[in-house]
Amino acid sequence: MPWDDVNTAPEILISGCTPRYGGAGRPDQGSGLSGKRLGGGGLSDETWLGGGGLGGGRLGDGSGPIRPTRMLPTPSTTHVSFDNVYEPAEDSFLLLDTLSSASETAFLQERFAQQCPLVVEVGTGSGVVLAFVAANTSPIFGHSRVLTLGTDLNLFACKAASHTVQQALKESASQSSPSVFLEILNTDLTGSLRPHSVDLLIFNPPYVPTETIPDPPKHGIDDDTKSSSKSKNSTFDRDSQLLALSYAGGADGMEVTNRLLDQLHSILHLQRGVAYILLCAQNKPLKVQERLRNWGANWSVEVVGNSGKKGGWEKLQILRVWRT
Amino acid sequence: MKLLTLNFLTCARRTCKSSPLSFPLHPCDAELEIADVDFSLDFLRNILPRLEWDAMVALCSELSLPLSATVPAAAELSGAGDEPTQSAKDLHHLLLETNITAGKLVCGNCGHEYAIKEGIANFLLPAHMV
Ligand SMILES: C[S@@+](CC[C@H](N)C(=O)[O-])C[C@H]1O[C@@H](n2cnc3c(N)ncnc32)[C@H](O)[C@@H]1O
Ligand SMILES: [Zn+2]
Predict the structure, then answer these.
(1) How does pLDDT run across A236-254, given as a tens digit for each residue?
(2) What is the CATH number of domain B3-121?
(3) What pTM was estimated for this model as a whole?
(4) Do B121 and A185 touch (CB under 8 A)?
(5) Looking at B3-125, which runs of residues are DSSP E strands?
(6) What is the pLDDT of residues A57-71, one digit of tens each?
(7) Ligand 1 contacts CB of residue A307 (under 6 A)
(8) What is the CATH classification number for the domain harbouring A149?
(9) Where do Basic and acidic residues bias regions lie (chain A) (predicted)?
(10) Which of A5, A160, A161, B81 is the most exposed place for a label (fewest CB within 10 A)?
């Protein structure tokens, strides 16, 4: 297991694609992975935030980029168990801020003015990003004729995200008529979606470079969700595996992202299709951009969000890839 | 799962994507449940052009639910003063308020069955089937 290897800790720190370990309000710190990893690496919370600026930036604590306070509410995820679902972190919040930025709302409003776009988030985790979009379609798209759908390999994430989106929709007072939330599908990437059906795709991938990627869970295939009949240990292993799935990106942290990029041609709408993809510095983002630029004149690529510079390089960035 | 979702779904197996038989997926042993959704005429009007109407008709007949064989014209959705017509309300009810909470979705090309449990559809494939 990667956690047991002390040497992997710095990598994880830099990239930021792990749950934040604020400690506050987490009664079971000690029993979870976080305790184990922090213990192994001997890192205090202070080192953690200092090293990666994880989750600190948005609060304006001086360690991160200066970003305006989010004007739109962040969906609540207090009902989610972060033992086996990715906890919203700086990467998640960068997506919220980018999707609601002036440049992106202008772009989306123009592109989807007359449409009823299908928004698909791949790998919803807690659902914080999809819920944000679903609850704020008026400010983002200029109207609420928007369909939202999510996917995740992790069944616990599917259930959590479904709850998060529905709750955010209920609480969103800003909408005259709410957008339509379809569902969260338990599937690999865009697995079961019809070709060219997706107007807007969002992906905050597992992007940490790792030696291997865990096998996908076999929910339903061997009924491993019946955890009550299993020992505490196997529940722990299963949860570790599910959390690993949320950050482990294989070589260059790009194995899962590359698979998704390859699917864009066949899944994005032939005229309107656009995707927002998050990358971290170790993904060699310049190389990724170059590769996408080689797709030809019918595609455009632009960096539309980043987490600010830290020690001379941008930790996280968001690419907008769209058909032109 | 809302019936509208089925308008966007196909078999997860790569080899099935190009076969017209893989769409729509066929509900089997479906348990249906109704859940309220706010009505929006604007939404209905704009979703119509996105629907694969024949597929939706086929689906509904498999579920013994009524859906007219032809797409309603935009004018049929509202009456005087933009009041929604009964057919608009029926369409809303069918697409957005009717949910499959349990059962299976079956691919017409390869026969693979995808389970729906507690409203969540499982499209994970064993490695040898991807
Ligand atoms: C970095 S987390 C992002 C979670 C959430 N979107 C957010 O921004 O907070 C990555 C998510 O992708 C999911 N995931 C990983 N590989 C996947 C795959 N092949 N298909 C679908 N989801 C995947 C993980 O289970 C996890 O929930
Ligand atoms: Zn099939």
Answers:
(1) 888 889 999 999 999 999 9
(2) 2.20.25.10
(3) 0.85
(4) yes
(5) 26-34, 98-106, 113-117, 120-121
(6) 333 344 444 555 678
(7) no
(8) 3.40.50.150
(9) 216-227
(10) B81
